[in-house]
């Protein structure tokens, strides 16, 4: 009885009622493909770290904006980090360099941001030592990253024209968690790394990321 009254009240108030998933609901394969598109289209996200034990905020999470670029083969992401950044210091304070990186889709004029896709990559950061990066790969990485982020030319590592200390880093996800929007029509849950890595291979279309003239995707390390 109470359930029926609630349903009537909700409908009268113009509210939405959740319904069971239908065949039109986003599949896990479609979600994986969507994430790969987001990684190429939305290259500004949020990196989350945890304050180390010797900090006054020990154990507390800390999250702030960061750039990435898809210069490595999936699932890895390329990052250009600065030791002065608090996020970077938190990450480097842990021997395994753990971090979580999130990206949110930006849809103009969407009345509800909660209906937009967002994804979290859970993994670890690998510091790429400058002297260990082959010269040809270094050139590709610089061109790739600055293609996505032209302003980053001002803090490319080991450039004499800027005062910033920075370094290249590879973010290697070990898990992916995706929220496509509302659960009645979008996938919500973990996406296997192997599925994400393979999805979209061999696909060619006018708007596919591999058709872009980007000096990337050739770095194999």
TrEMBL record:
InterPro entries found in the cross-reference section: CREG_beta-barrel, Split_barrel_FMN-bd
Cell membrane in keyword set: no
CREG-like beta-barrel domain boundaries: 28-197
Gene3D superfamilies: Electron Transport, Fmn-binding Protein, Chain A
Pfam families referenced in this protein's UniProt entry, alphabetically: CREG_beta-barrel
Signal peptide coordinates: 1-18
Entry keyword annotation includes Signal: yes
UniProt keyword annotations, A-Z: Signal
Protein name: Pyridoxamine 5'-phosphate oxidase-domain-containing protein
Species: Kockovaella imperatae
């Amino acid at each position: 009885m109470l359930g029926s009254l609630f349903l009537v009240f909700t409908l009268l108030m113009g509210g939405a009622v959740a319904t069971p998933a239908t065949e039109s609901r986003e599949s896990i394969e479609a979600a994986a493909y969507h994430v790969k598109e987001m990684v190429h289209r939305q290259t500004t996200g949020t990196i989350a770290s945890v304050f180390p034990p010797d900090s006054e905020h020990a154990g507390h999470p800390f999250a702030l904006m960061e750039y990435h670029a898809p210069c490595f083969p999936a699932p890895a992401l390329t990052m250009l980090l600065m030791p002065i950044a608090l996020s970077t210091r938190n990450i480097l304070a842990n021997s395994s360099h753990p971090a979580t990186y999130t990206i949110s889709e930006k849809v103009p004029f969407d009345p509800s941001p909660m209906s937009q896709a967002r994804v979290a990559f859970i993994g670890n950061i690998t510091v790429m030592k400058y002297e260990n990066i082959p010269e040809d790969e270094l050139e590709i990485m610089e061109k790739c990253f600055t293609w996505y982020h032209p302003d980053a030319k001002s803090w490319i590592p080991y450039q004499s024209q800027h005062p910033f200390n920075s370094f290249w880093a590879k973010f290697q996800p070990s898990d992916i968690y995706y929220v496509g929007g509302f659960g009645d029509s979008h996938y919500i849950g973990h996406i296997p790394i192997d599925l994400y890595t393979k999805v979209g291979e061999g696909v060619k279309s006018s708007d596919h990321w591999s058709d872009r003239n980007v000096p990337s995707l050739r770095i194999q390390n």
